[in-house]
Recover the amino acids of this structure.
């Protein structure tokens, strides 16, 4: 029985590692996964687990971009250190809208919006928006191709877009990238900035869930949690590298179509099958 629960945690870690970074909504996938891979644990533990395994995913960003995000590296010049500190300030400014709204409305949003109808609609709507925006940008020149070109006004606007990700099915990375593309960022900078913004947001969300749940874990609970986090870390490393290679020569339309199909699948499953 314990082995089965650990296997379930590993599968959920794989899903988290893939869907957290690709703009396809981890929540939408987790809702479907929960129908077929139900952890035989308390509701409180499952709620905490699905958030805290994101720590594994976020560690992948820290590992892959450690040098770029480390302002104390001895290998960097004084100017490069200043640029790194500037990135962090821009990340902090960018996460303010989502952070404030999340603290104020987290419980209300969870109670009212965490259902398959909202998730399905958001998957489809933002899938369509990806198609529209990529078509719009086809013949437009990118205005911002480096982090040094990012103004605080621009990152604040991106942060307002990210706040929309509080609605499940939207996708944190997806809506952040969409907003960034609308504001003229290159796909490369848009994707990286969405990764960096996730670091404090996901650490904060995981910390809050851990505090609410408490630290009185059983041996099985610790094993399940660590299994999910480690797998999410490994898979995230692969997913992030894949996405950054992919967008060198491709746009985000494929993810838009995928979201639309997934939204229809989720809606159809709950309406016609369950």
């Amino acid at each position: 029985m314990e082995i089965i629960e650990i296997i379930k945690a590993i599968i959920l870690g794989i899903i988290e590692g893939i869907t957290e970074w690709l703009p396809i909504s981890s929540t939408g996938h987790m809702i479907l996964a929960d129908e077929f891979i139900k952890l035989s644990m308390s509701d409180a533990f499952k709620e905490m687990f699905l958030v805290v395994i994101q720590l594994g995913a976020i560690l992948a960003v820290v590992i892959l971009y450690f040098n770029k995000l480390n302002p104390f590296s001895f290998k960097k010049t004084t100017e490069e250190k200043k640029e790194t500190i500037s990135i962090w300030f821009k990340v902090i400014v960018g996460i303010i809208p989502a952070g404030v709204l999340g603290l104020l409305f987290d419980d209300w949003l969870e109670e009212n919006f965490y259902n398959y109808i909202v998730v399905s609609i958001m998957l489809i709507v933002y899938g369509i928006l990806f198609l529209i925006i990529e078509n719009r940008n086809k013949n437009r020149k990118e205005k911002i191709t480096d982090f040094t070109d990012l103004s605080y006004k621009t990152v604040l606007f991106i942060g307002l877009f990210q706040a929309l990700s509080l609605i499940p099915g939207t996708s944190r990375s997806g809506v952040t990238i969409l907003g960034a593309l609308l504001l003229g960022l290159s796909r490369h900078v848009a994707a990286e900035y969405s990764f960096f913004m996730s670091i404090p947001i996901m650490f904060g969300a995981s910390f809050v869930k851990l505090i609410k749940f408490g630290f009185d874990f059983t041996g099985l609970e610790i094993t399940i949690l660590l299994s999910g986090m480690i797998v999410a870390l490994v898979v995230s490393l692969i997913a992030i590298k894949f996405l950054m290679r992919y967008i060198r020569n491709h746009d985000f339309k494929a993810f838009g179509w995928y979201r639309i199909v997934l939204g229809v699948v989720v809606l159809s499953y709950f309406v016609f099958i369950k």
